[in-house]
Amino acid sequence: MPVYTAPLQDLQFVLHDVLNVSQSATPGYDELDVDLTRAVLTEAGKIAENVLAPLNPVGDREGCRLENGVVRTPEGFAAAYAEMRAGGWMGLDCDPDYGGQGMPHLLQSAVGEIFVSANMAFNMYQGLSHGAYNAIHTHGTDAQKRTYLPNIVDGIWSGTMNLTEPHCGTDLGLIRTKAEPQQDGSYKISGQKIWISAGEHDLTDNIIHLVLARIPGGPEGVKGISLFIVPKFLVGEDGALGDRNTLSCGGLESKMGIHGNATCVMNYDGATGFLLGEEHKGMRAMFTMMNEARLGVGVQGYAQAAVAYQNALAFARDRLQGRDVTGARNPEGPADPIIVHPDVRRNLLDQKSFVEGARAFALWGASLIDGSHRGGDAEDEAMISLLTPVLKGFLTDKGFETTVLAQQTLGGSGFTREWGLEQFVRDARITMIYEGTNGIQSLDLVGRKLGLNGGKTIMAFFRMVKDFIAANGDDPAIVADFLVPLERASKDLEAASMYFMENGMKDPNNALSGSYDYMHLFGHVCLGLSWARMARAARIALDAGASDTEFYETKLATGRYYMARHLPATALHRARIETGAAPVMTLDAACF
Q: Which sequence positions are flagged as catalytic?
């Protein structure tokens, strides 16, 4: 059975040594002192390790069942959900006016990693609710906020997002679900949605569906889409639950992974709905959910890698096979533990260096969200907009790859269900697909985000890297191992960006053919920057006489590995990009 231990020391290191949160000017960060974050993360770790993680194989084995229109979640999920509710975890960073604790999104993201590593399928129930909360909080009327938010924050009710239909996924302009206006100001919603996570379940008293639909007579395409609140049970003016709405779960998907989460076909048969935001402006409101969801999926990507790595490491320390070529390390035993072998160490360091770099990158992204939302910082808003497709696409691609590496560490045992690694692989795979496939993320990055603010935001990123290198160039302990590789990688990113600017206008396929490589090139630079920041923080701690020298020395060694073995991939991606569209587009479609 797999195990999980929350990475409390590493999370604290990123929050306080790297990001220096309590010294930040972002409103609310002054409260994030070491004691507060330790207390919150410790409690999250306890429930993750003792309650959620043991249920992860249970959820995978049992899955969800549809019985007489009701979805039954796996054994133990309801009790675990009640315990999460009692602890106030649903509203950690929600508005205190509606019962939330008002913590920064940064802390929510750190806690989120812990819960996802422990049980990704379970955590999706509250994750979808959080997205619905944000959409209503941002775009809802005062009456809608009063009606729905307190119970969503409390966890008595949950939420979903309903976008995809059988004939359309990415191209939402093809949506057919209709919203017929009624005299009382409500709408009748009719249509079918598919792949709706947590669309029906037995964990809450009500489910608040946010549904994209068309009001007759509106513009064609995405400009004619509106967003509606469609509750499973209608809510009276006094807040009490009323009649069951005319919507139902028409079936559960049979899936590769995340079996513990109900992925539903949802049928809306003239269901009563209420407009959220403005008519025909539903995409604006829905993207409030989707942008947060994409960042959350990036966390899922590396969080699955993190728990897979923990189990691979434990196996490598215990499994006895062969002898160290330089001499026996376990002379009293029949063989040495496999962690002594260079290829196993390479495998484990690939995992460790990605997970720790991804953690620092993701939490930096969360701090930018806080800077934008709490501090009103337009530059932070632009930067997180630029980085969102990188966070989602790169961290989930590499996160899945890392779970496979962890599985490989176990050899044949990794292919069996007993050890749990194959579940992490299956669960991680969906992160590359939902909330916008990673191909779509790369197209968004190159087609929209690269030119954000007339190119000023990407230039601000380059300046940030250059300024960091210049500010730390007098530290010989990190120059050769960290700053020189980072500068080289950043130049590859600049050159690739310039290639798009010079050749994309001549033929857009020159940019689009290289977009996936560009997303990965960008991701490596972001992890390189994150490792350089961590190296600086580790050096400062060691120079200050930190007691846990092993932790900081290990951090530096792991960072050197990433900079030496992974960051050079930027040159490969740049070379691919600069081949242009011809290698990709020359072959006639009939010849594939």
A: 435
